[in-house]
Write a structure and sequence with these properties.
The complex is a heterodimer.
Chain A lengths: L3 E14 L2 E14 L3 E5 L6 H8 L7 E10 L2 E2 L6 H5 L6 E4 L13 H12 L4 H14 L5 H4 L9 H14 L4 E5 L7 H18 L2 E6 L2 H7 L2 E6 L2 E7 H7 L3 H8 L49 E2 L5 E2 L15 H7 L7
Helix pairs in contact in A: 3-4, 3-6, 4-6, 6-7
Chain B lengths: L1 H27 L15 H10 L6 H13 L5 E2 L6 E2 H36 L4 H15 L2 H15 L12 H30 L2 H9 L3 H18 L2 H7 L5 H6 L8 H7 L3 H29 L12
Antiparallel strand pairs in B: 1-2
Helix pairs in contact in B: 1-13, 4-5, 4-7, 4-10, 5-7, 6-7, 7-9, 8-9, 9-13, 10-13, 12-13
The chains are: A alpha/beta, B mainly alpha.
């Protein structure tokens, strides 16, 4: 029986920007299973990062969790009031890798120092042992010549090296869950591949639970056990990797999949999703995706759809899953690619 | 770094030499009254003899060479009209320590208050302590210097019964001048430090430090403060050296026999050797301040490398 390590229930987050209230997360419910790698995918601005930040209490001052719970080992993280409360779970329980390795290290401290700082907080080691641990971690993340490189300052390292250091810092905390906020987006493609492989390797070695956010389906295909698709502050489809890649049901998931250039023959016109995300300032009537949905039903504009459970693992938030709804077919490009032997990008 | 330092030093020396040369040349154009405390009473012959005695009738290159040579031996000549026939170095030796004593205590007090104050304000941004602090800073910067100088003097002497005039052996008489001089510095340092700290707070490395589980206090002191000080550290040596120049208002308000206003006085008295000495002294402190500022910056920020390129 898979055990949930983290449960998010109806998480609702509002931002106040110049007296306007923005509804950024509009009731996110999500379960993270121990040991899995869950990928949250969605376009920019759908609230992926905010979701991760709210788990660790990293939201800016103008953001407020207005409803919902985040349950981790019997604690409700949304009830935490102070930085002190969050310190109990940051690092040792849940660690995080940020998007841009160029800015996520302190420019004035050596990388060795920054790793050692994490060790000093989370592992009861003497100073000499800590130095050894720094060297071990740097070796673990594939840094060459760690005895020398630990004295490097961040500006002396390349982007890939810095992201390895950030990963080493996360490992130094000995976390149960590792949150990755687009850890490869800022890197170039060859380095992306290396860093992803490293993360997958470390996940298995240290039996980490990984929550990964990205907008790159290539990354999803590579790392995901399960996939949650996010749109306008909601999870609209969630399922195993197979559910999403071979049997996606939500029109938004289709359009995300169909927008992968890898599926097309060179020269062929790409299918793209028209329109924009709904204005987060407005209350949304019905289904948030309805205005951009070519298959939208009349009731999509009136009532928000519930989650329809297609199997134990696969849930879809769309009226198209209702019994009486017309049967719709995914776009041609997706059907074609279902036929492919190897559906991984 | 050694090679760069050497080049920097050579360049600083050249700058200094130019300043000395220009000051020397300009002062040769000054009227000769400045060489005699009792010019009006002297006859033409006496003046002639006096000038000859001082070597002022020699060709200019020889005079310049002698001047530089003497200066290198620590001889800046004699004051004539400011204090008749007293060694310039003796005058400066008396005045500089007094001004520096006040300047350094001022700087120390200002940093002692500014750093914790800006840390408190930045970490409680928008809260009560930040608002009160900001109000205090705005008042300090908006009200003309002279107004609160007088206010401090009035309150200090009338209400607190502190003796007004400076006395070297009575420490209580130092309090009012130091407080007066600190206020401007406090406003300056706190405003900028708070601003830089708030800028740092949004940066990713602060978020990563939080994610690591580092306490807020430690993030503020170990991570943010150091980064926030970087843009200011370069100017610190300069502010230390500038204490030599002294404060013209405060020193005259409390009758402190320091350097404040000395340059103005010696120019008014046309005391040529004093003007020469004081201008060169200020030039040295300026050049040295910039040089040390760059070295300090390079020590604290590893991204700054002292290599091929650099100023002054």
């Amino acid at each position: 029986m898979p055990e949930n390590i983290l449960t998010i229930e109806n998480l609702t987050v509002d931002f106040t920007v110049r007296n306007a209230l923005l509804h950024v997360l509009r009731g996110v419910s999500l379960e993270v299973i121990k040991g899995e790698s869950l990928v949250i995918v969605g376009e920019s601005g759908c609230g992926k990062s905010v979701l991760l930040k709210s788990i660790l209490g990293l939201l800016e001052q103008n953001a407020k969790i207005v409803a919902g719970r985040i349950l981790y080992r019997g604690n409700n993280l949304t009830s935490f009031q102070s930085e002190k409360d969050y310190q109990k779970i940051r690092g040792h329980e849940i660690a995080m890798i940020l998007q841009d390795p160029m800015t996520s290290l302190n420019p004035l401290l050596t990388i060795g120092y920054q790793i050692e700082e994490a060790i000093a907080i989370h592992q009861p080691l003497r100073k000499v042992k800590r130095k050894e641990e720094v060297i071990r971690l740097l070796t673990e993340v594939g840094m060459k010549d760690p005895r020398k490189t630990r004295h490097y300052y961040p500006h002396e390292c390349s982007g890939g090296m810095r992201q390895r250091v950030v990963i080493a810092i996360a490992l130094a905390c000995k976390p149960n869950i590792l949150l990755c906020d687009e850890p490869t987006t800022a890197l170039d493609v060859t380095i992306q591949e290396q860093v992803l492989n490293l993360l997958i390797h470390l996940q298995h070695k240290y039996q980490l639970t990984v929550v990964f956010i990205t907008h790159d389906f290539g990354v999803v295909a590579k790392v995901a056990d399960r996939v949650a698709v996010m749109y306008a502050g909601e999870i609209i489809e969630v399922g195993t990797s197979n559910d999403i890649f071979l049997d996606a049901r939500h029109p938004y998931t289709w359009s995300l999949l169909a927008s992968q250039p890898a599926l097309y023959v060179p020269g062929e016109e790409l299918i793209y999703l028209g329109g924009t995300l709904p204005n987060p300032q407005e209350e949304i009537q019905g289904d948030a995706f309805a205005p951009r949905n070519p298959w939208a039903l009349e009731r999509d504009f009136i009532y928000a759809p519930p989650y329809f459970k297609l199997s134990d693992t696969h849930q879809v938030k769309s009226w198209l899953m209702e019994k009486r709804a017309p049967k719709v077919e995914p776009p041609r490009i997706i059907k074609e690619y279902y036929q492919l032997e190897n559906w991984r990008f | 770094m050694g090679k760069y330092m050497l080049r920097r030093l050579v360049r600083s020396m050249i700058t200094l030499f130019l300043v000395v040369f220009i000051v020397f040349s300009l002062l040769r154009l000054m009227p000769i009254e400045g060489y005699f405390p009792n010019y009006e009473k002297l006859t033409v012959e006496q003046i002639e003899a006096g000038l000859k005695n001082m070597g002022l009738l020699d060709p200019l290159p020889i005079q310049f060479f002698r001047y530089v040579k003497d200066m290198l031996h620590g001889d800046l000549g004699y004051s004539r009209t400011y204090m008749a026939n007293v060694l310039v170095t003796d005058i400066l030796k008396q005045k500089i320590p007094i001004s520096m004593k006040f300047g350094l205590s001022t700087l120390f007090l200002a940093l002692l208050i500014s750093i914790p104050l800006s840390l408190a304000m930045a970490s409680h941004k928008g809260k009560l302590i930040d608002r009160i602090g900001t109000l205090f800073l705005v008042i300090l910067q908006a009200v003309p210097y002279a107004v609160y100088l007088l206010l401090i003097q009035a309150i200090g002497t009338e209400k607190l019964h502190i003796k007004m005039l400076y006395h070297a052996n009575d420490v209580t008489t130092w309090i009012l001048p130091i407080v007066s001089m600190s206020l401007g510095n406090i406003a300056f340092y706190t405003t900028w430090l708070r601003r830089y700290l708030i800028e740092e707070e949004k940066k990713d490395y602060v978020i990563l430090a939080k994610v690591k589980g580092v306490s807020s206090k430690r993030i503020l002191k170990k991570h943010m403060l150091k980064n926030a000080i970087v843009p200011m550290i370069q100017y610190l040596p300069n502010s230390i050296f500038n204490t030599i120049i002294g404060s013209i208002y405060v020193e005259s308000l409390y009758s402190i026999p320091g350097m404040g206003g000395l340059l103005v006085q010696v120019i008014q008295r046309q005391d040529n050797s004093m003007v020469q000495a004081v201008v060169v002294l200020f030039a040295i402190t300026g050049i040295l301040g910039v040089l040390l500022g760059d070295i300090l910056l390079c020590l604290i920020d590893p991204r700054v490398k002292l290599n091929s390129k650099g100023g002054v």
